Amino acid sequence: MRLPKEVLKEVFGFDSFRGLQKEIIEHILDGGDALVLMQTGGGKSLCYQIPALCLNGITVVVSPLIALMRDQVESLNQLGVRAAGLNSTLTPTEANKVEQRIVSGQLDLVYVSPERLLTKTFLDLLNRCDVALFAIDEAHCVSQWGHDFRPEYLKLTTLHERFPQVPRLALTATADGPTRRDILERLSLQSGRLFVAGFNRPNIFYRVVPKDNPRKKFLRFLENEHSGDSGIIYHLSRSKVEDTAQWLIDQGYTALPYHAGMSKKLREKNQDQFFKEEGVIMVATIAFGMGIDKPDVRFVAHMDLPKSMESYYQETGRAGRDGEKSTAWLAYGVGDVGKIINFIDISDAPDEQKRVERQKLEKLLGYCETTQCRRQVLLEYFGETLEQPCNNCDTCLEPVESFDGTVAAQKALSCAYRTGERFGTMYIIDVLLGAKTERIQSFDHHRLSTYGIGKEFSKEEWRSIFRQLVAMGLLTVDIEGHGGLRLGPNHRPVLVGERSIQFRRDAGRTTLSKKKKRKTEKQRAKSTFDNPSDDALFQALRDCRMGLAKEQGVPPYVIFHDSALSDMVQSKPHNIEEFSMLHGVGEAKLKRYANDFLAVILEERQN
Ligand code: ADP
Ligand code: ZN
User: Fold this and answer.
1) Ligand 1 atom closest to Cα of 40?
2) Which of 7, 40, 46 maximizes ligand 1 atoms within 8 Å of its Cβ, making it the mutation to test the pocket?
3) pTM for the whole thing?
4) Segments in the chain below pLDDT 50
5) Domains of the chain with bracketed CATH
6) Within 13 Å, how many C-alpha atoms sit on residue 369's CB side?
7) CA 202 to centroid of ligand 2, rounded, Å
């Protein structure tokens, strides 16, 4: 039997296992069953791909998404691994060929859709060959609790009944308690081992910004930290998706829209371009998500608030699957809160569920307003404890000042009350600042005792205060009253001075923290190389990769990941021997590509 460690180096070009990979692989090689819960980008595929190459016989991978299957097969073929996919997109002749290869022992891995797997023909075919392992990817599809329930998954127990001696490995990135129990039960995996790898995504930097002038803020973020990178921007509505895509195009970026209102054909075309070209920004509703397996998405930006911590985690999790530096960026304002509450209220869900959804929203608001390390708050929500602040989020790098806002809160609450609990933030702020507007005059609100009592803060500062009051539940957004603010259930202790309030100082931070912010932005600005000529080399290597990818009609990252290119720039190999030491260069890629890339390095060296 080949040793896992050797396969890792020779085939994949990696030096060491990550996290629980080694333990999982050993467990499988010992003939055990397992359920693996590992976050996106954690390296789940290797957990079955390596046993597939160590064991005799074929590994059958059940995968629900054709696009994902294609990508995996393509990447494996690039590594010189004998893998193929079997699904409804193949012609009968093509499918026949794959089946031939299965029975004649010419494949190490076959990816099949659950429908195909469960056909009599396919099961009979498996009876005639030596099956090493069943890997069940996206295992949460077996559970009705999950959002991607696939009835065919329920029938996968057949595998165990028919092939009791073959080990089974189920894998998923999304499984809360009930889903986890469902998976174990419905796949009859109770006697298998459970591997839980945790939720932390250390390579993702978390940033939340107040939503005033969000486009300007986003553009600065893009230019400073991610110019030329691919990323995803999420919006709540289709029309905003279209607007923002157009706006980015006007700014000179390559941006594409994606939402459920577009034709299937156009959606597929845009998705394909996003995968195959570099530096494309996808502007989308959450319709864009399932099976987004592009490893080099460098940022996920939420222009509108996601609906819960779960959605936020899942959507931001599409960044940085390759483990390289990436950013989750979120712009957040009170207006969004109202919109989401409205979505919840008008849905047909039972009251109990509506209550749960409101609570989930509150948790998310708490995350947005936190003065603590964001990663700690995020992981805490998923039941994990991170002992130390992460030093890779905005609150860690730019500590937020807080201040005693008891009096400010009292002013804000009583002004909302005295104006009749039916006006929105901007109006109430105008009253607090004593603005001379016709609207205020027409309601006679310039005679209120709260008129003009808030001049110690700017408009921007007040907005931040109102956002935090909403997040704390001291004010609630009334949708029927068009976003009017009402007093929340626990306002009394604040108004009578029994409870003091701390606010984070968001807007108009001191000049010191502004300077600090600029500094961290600079530090996080795109990591260019120390030597300017290295930038040119990196670009030349990227061009070479793009050329090869185009020739073969595959996405560039299946040829080499960015990390391999950076490694080439850093170590500038002179020959095949040195090239073989690079990260992500196994034997097949060495043979196929070393000469092309060595030529580029040589040429840049002579310039
Ligand atoms: P998942 O399926 O869990 O989302 P993948 O299996 O696609 O994650 O792996 C994510 C990325 O990490 C891939 O680019 C893969 O090549 C890389 N990777 C996985 N394991 C290792 C390892 N041991 N060393 C280096 N890179 C790895
Ligand atoms: Zn942190």
Assistant:
1) 4
2) 46
3) 0.77
4) 508-512
5) 4-196 (3.40.50.300), 204-397 (3.40.50.300), 402-504 (1.10.10.10), 532-606 (1.10.150.80)
6) 23
7) 10
